[in-house]
Amino acid sequence: MSKIAFVFPGQGAQYVGMGEELAKEYPVASEVFNQASEAIGYDMKELCFNSSAEELKLTEKTQPSILTASIAVYKVMLEKGIKPEAVAGLSLGEYSALVASGVLDLSDAVKVVRQRGKYMQEEVPVGVGGMAAILGLDGALVEEACAETEGVVEPANYNCPGQLVIAGELAAVEKASEKCREKGAKKAVMLPVSAPFHTSMLKGAGEKLAVEFEGVSFGPMTYPVVANVTADYVENSDAVKGLLIDQVSSPVKWEMSIRKLVEDGFDTFVEIGPGKALSKFIKKISREVTILNVEDVASLEKTLAKLEA
Prior knowledge:
single chain; Malonyl-Coenzyme A Acyl Carrier Protein, domain 2
């Protein structure tokens, strides 16, 4: 028997039309969009299916829309009788994982992530911070380059072997990128984002987010959740709030999270929601596991056929 983990994508996975096919075909998916619309006060179907790429790129709309599209896919998988034995998500995707596990209610989650996006964007003025992807350099050398650079620059995303994202003050990110090239990085690419996500510069955003959680109740966990901050299982629902607040200003340990699951015998990873970014990362982390994704009717049918084979 396969040991299945569901993984949920983060910001950047969005595209116009995400979730539309499944919502038309499956009432359970359509209902997720309706529930999210009611909670957030605007038409989530209209946003996800018919808006522009520009509108979907606005962080406070991106985050609830990806979360909604991901949970719509998740509900269809459950209806098809496919359940995970553990869940994880990259950055924003951790909220989808927590909704899937029953810790967060969808209505609470979409409201919280809308504010999360807003706070993260507002914390550092545009033009002050930045992020860069460092390709083809060992993580320890990237960390070394950051430590040797004046100003704030820190590892922000440990995506997979040979891909680590750094972030911080723009000038420091540029200098550290140059040092990474000198240390042998194949590439150092500035990313088209306007804030240094997952660095100490966003601590204030985490503090504001803490206030958003005051009215939110955390339910029991149906499936174990691996947290970005620790790359380990969340001990219990009481620990979730602190981890989500820390996550805003801490590096995302995605590679380590997947390695933890692989070590624990998970041999099948299903990316649930828009895009295939996580599938590409996992492929570089482990050659031994089966990697599937579900985002529309065709990928659903393909995945179900493989899981039932």
